[in-house]
Design goal:
This protein is mainly α and 178 residues long. It contains 10 helices and no strands. Helix 4 packs across helix 6 and helix 4 packs across helix 8. It is globular, with a radius of gyration of 19 Å. The N terminus is likely disordered.
Length: 178
């Protein structure tokens, strides 16, 4: 689906009509500036980094970190969840045009931090990072469904999944804006 969409966009951009309009309006696509700190990510405006921006306090001890199979388990869960999200017709459009490398990295940091792993969260706070997305309750529901599937595929127990989701649930008020 994404290849088909990219092919259609490339064809449109290459069409003479588009080229004429672009020349007439002095249309210039701004260059993408890449991050120096995080390879393969687009650069972002500077912001204050804080574990408080993760949206939840971490679990104490190592039980939850171990239940999620440490960093490797968190990586697999996030990667599977993001893949499901971009393939999910209910919410795929939310991710178009966003830096998926950065999304994956910050979700891995956030999950690892909340699960009590030895990781700091370097992403933005939940409210500002989701402010302009216009997310609805149904969008959040679809994302949670995809997370639950990814956690189940990783073999995370139902009890551990529910404890983690209970930590994430209060973020809804900062993420869902309409």
């Amino acid at each position: 689906m994404r290849i088909l969409l990219l092919t259609a966009v490339a064809s449109l951009l290459a069409s003479p009509a588009f080229a004429q309009d672009a020349e007439a309006d002095d249309f210039v696509i701004p260059p993408v500036v890449m991050s120096i700190e995080h390879p393969n990510e687009e650069a972002v405006e500077p912001y204050e980094q804080s574990n408080a921006h993760a949206g939840a306090t971490p679990f104490e001890g190592t039980a939850m970190w171990e239940a999620f199979h440490g960093q490797e388990g968190v990586n697999r869960i996030v990667d599977a969840m993001v893949e499901r999200n971009i393939a999910d017709s209910r919410i795929a459009a939310t991710f178009v045009g966003h830096d998926l490398v950065r999304i994956r990295r910050t979700l891995k940091e956030q999950f690892a931090y909340i699960l009590g792993g030895p990781v700091d969260y370097t992403g933005r706070d939940m409210a500002s990072s989701h402010r302009d997305l216009g997310l609805q309750a149904a969008d959040m529901g679809a994302l949670v469904e995809n997370l639950q599937i990814a956690m189940s595929q990783e073999g995370v127990s139902f009890v551990a999944q529910n404890r983690f989701l209970a930590k994430l649930a209060p973020m809804r008020r900062d993420v869902v804006v309409r």
